[in-house]
């Protein structure tokens, strides 16, 4: 029993400062793989992913509130992907996004990109382009991104 305890103590002291780095390197990338594409998943699936993160953090001894939620990271990844798409004129996603409108009138929507189609279903609304466009203007980010 003494050998087992001393072995556990040496392993735990070695891992003490490294557990968060291990989580960020091996576990979280698996939870976030291709998240801009499937980021608009239903709430019950998002909650299931958050539970997996909380369980992993609890098992390795990291406070759950020390890292951002997976949903906020998915939103940031979606916005980053959209901005990269808007800046790359050869991107195939640009077919689904209308260029910004420049009107001779002072309108609130001037200089904003918009999706070419309206969402008629919740599933379409949570798909990449409509969701990304909503996120882009949700935070008051109405600055046009150069085409």
TrEMBL record:
This is Uncharacterized protein LOC118430233. The lineage of its organism: Eukaryota, Metazoa, Chordata, Cephalochordata, Leptocardii.
């Amino acid at each position: 029993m003494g050998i087992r305890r001393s072995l556990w103590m040496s392993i735990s002291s070695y891992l003490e400062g490294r557990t968060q780095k291990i989580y960020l390197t091996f576990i979280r990338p698996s939870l976030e793989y291709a998240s801009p594409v499937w980021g608009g998943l239903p709430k019950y699936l998002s909650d299931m992913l958050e539970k997996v993160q909380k369980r992993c953090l609890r098992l390795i001894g990291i406070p759950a509130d020390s890292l951002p939620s997976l949903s906020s990271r998915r939103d940031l990844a979606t916005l980053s992907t959209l901005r990269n798409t808007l800046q790359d004129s050869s991107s195939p996603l640009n077919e689904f996004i209308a260029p910004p409108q420049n009107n001779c009138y002072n309108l609130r929507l001037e200089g904003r990109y918009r999706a070419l189609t309206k969402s008629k279903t919740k599933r379409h609304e949570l798909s990449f382009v409509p969701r990304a466009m909503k996120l882009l203007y949700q935070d008051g980010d109405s600055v046009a991104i150069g085409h």
